[in-house]
Amino acid sequence: MTTHKIAVIAGDGIGPEVIDEGIKVLNAVAAKDGSFKFEFTHFPWGCEYYKENGYMMPADGIETLSKFDAIFLGAVGAPGVPDHISLWDLLLIIRKSFDQYINLRPVKLLKGAPCPLKDAKVEDIDMVFVRENTEGEYAGSGSWLFKGKENEVVIQDGVFSRKGCERVIRYAYELAKSQGKSLTSISKANALNYSMVFWDQIFAEVGKAYPEVKTYSYLVDAASMFMVKVPKRFEVVVTSNLFGDILTDLGAAIAGGMGLAAGANLNPERKFPSMFEPIHGSAPDIAGTGKANPLATVWSASQLLDFFGHEDWGKRLIDIIEEVLTEEKVLTPDLGGTATCSEVGDEVVRKI
Ligand code: NAD
Ligand code: IPM
Ligand code: MN
Question: Rounded distance, CA 186 to CA 199, Å?
């Protein structure tokens, strides 16, 4: 029997609530299948831990996590701890340290999911974002000069390396090719006259090896408009770290809401563990109320199953989410229901 060793960082706010359901679901899948099992190891890292210890995770945290096959993360961030500390010292440092340079985020309208776009059909919203996940606007490079003085200056660098751009763009081409889909690059070369000119150039260069892939290149402002007006234009999408962050929350909004948006932080070479997480945050406004929707986490669990080669189960979980949505019997308040987070998790388990 194969054992998948998973490090769990439930984190803050609704993180622990949704992760409990994700674990319940993964254990139910393994029990039903019988050929593999999960071994979950919990790490109490997050903002409470920070308040007690003065750091988000111990100095050897990355070393500790490196021994696992994958990481399952809830959400990080809580009032009282500056976001740039809590996120940089836990989530972002994991993405970077483990070279999880692909952030794969499906933006797919499932059957039964609410959509604010008039007349949109499920087949109109079926895209996958390949977000660069280790550099770009999130490189963490910059300086803060003359702090607190009249001549204070802040510089935040965007760092776009040839290697960093080529590998994410190549991954997106490969994905589009394997699925027979078009590939859209989203950038902003009219204003960002170094980074995005470079990005566009690499998109064209890498594309020479993929003549069969139909490509589009949009400016990010126009792309955000088209995602709302004509979402059908987008199939596989590749974009930079910050644009991908913003556009996938927009994607969540058109595909059922934050409670249904999943993401996988992948190190495709599998040299380091990959990390699976819902893309939403710790939602302090609903934490502790039982209102959190765990389906985004279940979808991330489906991505985890795909990653471990259990694609049949990955697909089954998506089918089950669709069943739960279309039956409309057990849904959390964000989807118009009255069920709690754990009742939705139980319903998914019952269907497994
Ligand atoms: P958020 O995603 O936490 O919440 C935005 C809105 O969506 C809120 O109204 C919230 O109630 C709702 N929402 C989010 N997830 C939901 C779910 N599963 N079910 C139902 N409703 C849900 O974003 P925010 O409020 O901007 O950020 C809150 C904190 O989370 C901040 O500290 C932020 O830095 C952090 N954050 C962390 C991550 C992460 O850990 N991956 C991602 C985004 C934000
Ligand atoms: C996300 C989040 C993170 C990001 C934050 C919390 C640093 O918004 O995963 O989408 O911007 O990548
Ligand atoms: Mn985000």
Answer: 9
* Pocket mutation for ligand 2, best pick of 91, 132, 300 (most atoms within 8 Å of C-beta): 91
At which of 255, 290, 314 does a domain end? 255
Nearest CA to ligand 2 atom 1: 279
**Pocket of ligand 2, beta carbon within 6 A:** 87, 91-92, 245, 279
| CATH number, position 352 | 3.40.718.10
**CA-closest residue to ligand 2 atom 3:** 245
- Residue 308's φ and ψ, nearest 5 degrees, are -90, 10
Number of domains the chain is built from? 2
Nearest CA residue ID for atom 44, ligand 1: 281
* pLDDT, position 45: 98
Tokens 């701890």 locate to 81
Q: What's the domain range around 243?
A: 115-133+159-255
Kindly identify the ligand whose nearest atom is closest to the C-alpha of 241. Answer: 2
Distance 137 CA to ligand 3 centre (A): 13
Strands 102-108 and 262-266: antiparallel
Q: Are residues 6 and 69 in the same domain?
A: yes
Q: pLDDT tens for residues 331-345?
A: 999 999 999 999 999
Å from CA of 287 to ligand 1 middle: 10
At residue 77, what are phi and psi to the nearest 5 degrees?
130, 130
The percent of residues in the chain predicted with pLDDT above 90, rounded, is 100
For the segment 141-183, what is each residue's pLDDT rounded down to a tens digit? 999 999 999 999 999 999 999 999 999 999 999 999 999 999 9
Residue nearest to atom 43 of ligand 1 (CA): 281
Q: Is 279 in contact with 296 (CB distance < 8 Å)?
A: yes
State which of 245, 258, 280, 303 you would mutate to test the pocket of ligand 2, scoring each by most atoms of that ligand within 8 A of its C-beta. 245
Banded model confidence at residue 302, pLDDT cuts 50, 70, 90: very high
Name residue, tokens 């995602």.
Answer: 227
